[in-house]
Amino acid sequence: LKGRPLPAALGDVFEALPGPASREALLTWVVVATLVLFLLSWAVGLMASLASVRFGERVSYDVAGDLFGHLQRLSLRFHLKHGVGSSIRRITGDAGAIATIVQDAMLPAVAAVATLVTMIVIMVQLDLGLTLLALGVLPAMALVMRLYSGGMTERSYEQQETEGELYETLEQTLTGLPVVQTFQGEPAGDRRFAENTDRVMAATIRMTWAQFRFKLLLGAVTALGTAAVFWVGAQHALDGTLSIGTILVFLAYLGSLYAPLHDVSHSSTTVTEALGSAIRVVEVLDAPADVADRRGAVGLSGVRGDVALEGVWFGYGPGRPVLRGVDLVARRGEVVAVVGPTGAGKSTLVSLVPRFFDPDRGRVTLDGHDLRDLRLATVRGSVSLVLQESFLFPFSVAENIAYGRPGASREEIEAAARDANAHEFISRLPEGYETVLGERGASLSGGERQRVAIARALLKDAPVLILDEPTSALDAETEGLLLGALERLMAGRTTVIIAHRLSTIRHADQIVVVRDGEVVERGAHDELVALDGHYARMHNLQHGTAAAGTETA
After folding, report:
1. Helices marked H in 127-185 — which ranges?
2. How far apart are CA 413 and CA 70, in angstroms?
3. Domain holding 256: CATH number?
4. CA 156 to CA 100: how far, in whole Å?
5. Cα atoms found within 13 Å of the Cα of residue 324, Cβ hemisphere only
């Protein structure tokens, strides 16, 4: 205070008091004030920590929500390329890393800057020259941060990428656990997991080593600054221009000056490290939704359900067409069956109807409108889907059935279940319609899952229906239970069905035979059998093996 060491100034105040009583009263007030200040400091610190965590977590959840929402709207092409595990890692890991920028960098940096300014003001009062000397380390610290920031961002990005690969391995292995266990693939899974963890560990070590070098250089710079201040201060003490007490107080403040400088530097490295995660987040958020509403897209009311593919070419990668000039027309109420060998492009063909992908050439229409000119809500609201392995969520049975119509009443849900021949087995479940299913509906049999999926499609009541081999994985008895439900589901709807069992489609209005991505035959069952082409050979093969006890091609 006024160039004098703080302890001496406080001692002068204490000695200036008139008597012991005054000193005792002052001591009491000092103790009380100390306790009050401690409690206030604790309360303010607690509130600041809670506010920091709340704000950081809010940022994290907002980023994760934006990521999840965007990932849901990206086309299947993106997810086929990047994998589910990597996307999960971006939501659970990278979005959380953004919160560290707020919690461990931005807010502490604000406090550090406030402390830094306070210390500089006090130290200037003690000695301007020593203060300028102490601040001389700032350019060196800035240089160190500049040299290492880019490298740590790259290391952080590499670390997050390897962790994403690890998540992908875990997701694939655990999803395919029945295959892993049946084919005794556990040793191979262990090997892949070990290889992934080795890569993660190596990336983490490289990141840690970069952090260590950064902190070492930063510590060396501040140590040199402290040594320089001590040397010059000692010279002033020997010259008598500064008291030893002033120098000691200045050195104490110097520690309080360099501490927030370290905090600011640490905050900058935290931001730098989090940038690796931020880059991965931005990569997803900047990924264009190649299947999205174009400007001027319109909605349709009263959709009839007339579907057409006109000269459609499509491939999952450049130069590898899966569909080649496909033409197909399915009018309202018609059943169009698509048959052909495995890999012919049947599933790809039907995936264009709900606009999971856009064709590379040609167009897909609904009621004469190019799907790209319609709002996605109109297109997908007009289509129901039943797959060979229907996906059920770990929700209640009622919630699964009402997934396409969340506001449906219990009466409507049960009516759909009855039409799907599902009400009887659902009623036998422990909690009936409120029974929560296992992951992917694992607590139900294959036939039961299919009947719930049919009920879901019935309740949605869309004018267009896609059936992708809905009975091919079922035995003849279970298939018989489903056929009646499927007939009720198809009634009055435009239905495109993929089938391997030709007996299930012989009454289709039109049968389309696809080979190598091209339509090679089309017509009714009897016409194609009489044509004696690809379809006739498939029919004869199944008819010949039927006597031996199977109808599967």
Report:
1. 128-134, 138-175, 177-182
2. 31
3. 1.20.1560.10
4. 13
5. 12
- Sole residue written with tokens 């952090």: 211
- Report the distance separating Cα 134 and Cα 231, nearest Å: 12
Residue 181 maps to a domain: yes
Structure tokens at 49: 């920590």
d(CA 461, CA 420) in angstroms, rounded, equals: 13
CB atoms within 10 A of CB 37: 10
Query: Is the distance from CB of 444 to CB of 452 less than 8 angstroms?
Result: yes
**C-alpha separations of 268 from 106, 108, 118, 330, 428 in Å:** 9, 11, 21, 61, 61
pLDDT band, residue 519 (cuts 50/70/90) = very high
User: CA nearest 326: which of 359, 355, 354, 356?
Assistant: 359
pLDDT, tens digit, 9 for 90 and up, residues 418-429: 988 889 999 999
Domain with 70, as residue range(s), is: 58-285
Length of the chain: 553
What are the tokens at 398? 């009622």
- Quote the number of domains for the chain: 1
Separation of alpha carbons 553 and 500, rounded Å: 7
Question: CA–CA separation, 160 vs 524, rounded Å?
Answer: 55
Helix (H) / strand (E) containing 511: strand 510-515
- pLDDT (0 to 100) of residue 307: 95
Contacts (Cβ under 8 Å, ≥6 apart) of 430:
none
Read off the amino acid at residue 191: R
Token pair of 375 as six digits: 């709002």
Residue 311 backbone phi and psi in degrees, to 5: 55, 45
The CA distance from 4 to 2, in Å, is 6
**Of 246 and 107, the one with more pLDDT:** 246
CA 214 vs CA 2, 192, 209, 221, 494: distances in Å: 39, 33, 9, 11, 66
Q: pLDDT digit string (tens) for 181-212?
A: 666 777 887 888 888 888 888 888 888 888 78
The answer to whether residue 94 sits within a structural domain is: yes
CA distance 506 to 499: 10
